[in-house]
Design goal:
The complex is a heterodimer. Chain A is an alpha+beta fold. Chain A is built from 10 helices and 4 strands; from the N terminus they run H-H-E-H-E-H-H-E-H-E-H-H-H-H. Chain A has a 4-stranded antiparallel sheet. Chain B contains 7 helices and 10 strands. Classes of the chains: A alpha+beta, B alpha/beta.
């Protein structure tokens, strides 16, 4: 126990002894996790908006001539039973004609067209609109529906779903690339910080070895130093991001009220419940790896 | 306590530091190892601490074959050996108490025992009132006493001293020797590597003389034969 406390005490001392390098390392980790945090917030919100949009992306099913309404309603309940389906809306041929009239001839006297009501030109235009829970499942559903007897065609609008998904992917790749570079820089800087500590304290380390210190005892203060730098470097950006996120969300929702119809932000609690532990783990991990690699190389009993 | 069988050590460039030496040192003995620079004394010292491996031959300490000792067992071996150097090697940013306590922290001694043991050691080496002094406030003799206290606080059965009087005047040198003798009387095996002819002559202990990597004499109550 006293060795453990010794390690922690010396580790904290090391951070202050090596002030400049510690600050540089903390700064890099902070930058790394700040960028990571920003991208995380963006990607999560994007996915959130995307999932809202997904429910409005639907599939329209048309039927062969002569397929009766009862048959269509049977197919409707068959489709409704599928897991990926959120809801199914039935539009009868009459409703389709009515909608068409209103849309195509809004200014025309509707009575002129009433003559056609009994001889509906869209007699075979009854359709089902199927809304999905998850747009990614769209293709499976389309394949399934196409296989049902009486189905003439299936219209699926994939472009919206695809562009949303590809933008989300691009964002993830860019953030991943930036993070990989910054993690590399951070590990390098921590390794240098620890290396300087080892050089400054080489006499003490030599004495420790003569006195019978274990590798763990000699290395622990340096590991703690690295992890402490990582911890501080992850706490700063997480706190800053939390404040910033709440301010941005408030600003966007109050200043751009028109946006709020199709853009809703995730509550800060939901974002940071995940972002805080991830950042802490990354920070501590960078600190641990940066110092451990150096210690394995330079300190052996 | 210590047994060497046909130990050789060859450094890169075919520099032969030890040429097949064999010796036995029994528990509780007081032994001087003397010899010119380059005679192999320091190599012997490092081999005993397992800082390096011999090129051939076997070394036993407390019946343990150092060649078969796993790396992770090395700290345990060293905890059984107190070490004192010519240049004291005290930590300058820590006071006397902290320097000695450091040895106990390294072996994970509980805090309540550390204070008791450190104070007992300070008393043994005659510095009970210097606990709060820093190394630069002490004379050479006092610094070496602190180093001795640090080497002994973990109660090792063996004490290795490399030129412990090398930086001291004759009076302080003699006092350190008397202290080493007192420690030896308590049962600790003491091996002193030295150049100090006067002290070796005066102490009348076993003297092992080395030259060019070989033991050229081993006398029970010897003097300093190397000139």
């Amino acid at each position: 126990m006293s060795s453990f406390l010794y390690g922690i005490k010396q580790g904290i001392k090391n951070v202050f002894r090596n002030r400049l390098f510690s600050l540089a390392s903390i700064g890099t980790i902070t930058a790394c996790l700040f960028i990571f945090g920003i991208f995380y917030c963006m990607v999560m919100n994007f996915q959130h908006i995307f999932s809202e949009v997904e429910t409005t992306v639907g599939v329209t099913v048309f039927f062969d001539e002569g397929v009766e309404e009862d048959q269509i309603l049977d197919i409707k309940s068959q489709i409704e039973k599928r897991d990926e389906v959120d809801n199914v809306h039935y539009t009868s041929a009459d409703e389709a004609w009515k909608e068409y009239k209103e849309k195509a001839f809004p200014d025309t006297d509707q009575n002129i067209l009433t003559n056609l009501d009994n001889d509906n030109p869209l007699a075979s235009s009854a359709s089902l609109e199927v809304y999905l829970k998850d747009a990614a499942m769209q293709q499976d559903l389309v394949d399934y529906i196409k296989g049902i007897d009486g189905v003439r065609s299936v219209n699926a609008s994939k472009s919206v779903a695809d562009s949303f998904a590809s933008f989300g992917r691009l964002l993830s790749y860019v953030s991943l690339a930036i993070i990989v570079i910054l993690v590399g820089v951070a590990v390098f800087l921590i390794s240098n910080t620890v290396m300087i500590g080892i050089t400054v304290r080489h006499e003490e380390i030599a004495i420790m070895k003569y006195l019978g210190a274990t590798d763990f005892f000699v290395r622990a203060p340096f590991l703690i130093e690295g992890m402490l730098i990582g911890l501080i470097g992850s706490l700063i950006p997480v706190c800053a991001l939390k404040v910033l996120y709440e301010k941005v969300v408030t600003f966007m929702t109050t200043e751009f009220t028109s946006l709020s119809r199709f853009m809703t932000f995730l509550p800060s609690g939901e974002i940071f419940r995940v972002l805080i532990p991830i950042s802490l783990i990354i920070g501590l991990g960078i600190g641990f790896i940066g110092s451990y690699v150096t210690l394995i190389k330079h300190i052996r009993v | 306590m210590i047994a060497l069988d046909q130990v050789t050590k060859t450094y890169p460039g075919d520099v032969k530091a030890l040429k097949g030496i064999s010796l036995r040192i029994k528990k509780g003995e007081f032994v001087f190892v003397v010899g010119q620079s380059g005679s192999g004394k320091t190599t012997l010292f490092k081999l005993l601490l397992k800082e390096m491996e011999p090129t051939s031959g076997t070394i036993y300490i407390n019946n343990k074959n150092l060649g078969r000792l796993r790396r992770r067992r090395v700290p345990k071996l060293r905890r059984g050996i107190g070490v004192v150097f010519q240049d004291f090697r005290l930590l300058k940013d820590r006071n006397v108490y902290e320097n000695i306590a450091f040895a106990q922290q390294v072996v994970g001694a509980p805090n309540r025992l550390i204070k008791k043991n450190v104070m007992a050691m300070l008393k043994l080496v005659g510095l009970p009132d210097k606990a709060k002094s820093y190394p630069n406030e002490l004379s050479g003799g006092e610094q070496q006493r602190v180093a001795l206290a640090r080497a002994l606080v973990n109660n090792p059965p063996l004490l290795l001293a490399d030129e412990p009087t090398g930086n001291l005047d004759p009076k302080n040198s003699w006092e350190i020797m008397k202290l080493l003798e007192a420690i030896n009387m308590r049962g600790t095996t003491v091996v002193v590597v030295t150049h100090n002819k006067e002290i070796v002559e005066r102490m009348q202990k076993r003297v092992i003389t080395m030259s060019e990597g070989e033991i050229i004499s081993d006398e029970r109550k010897g003097g300093y034969i190397y000139e």
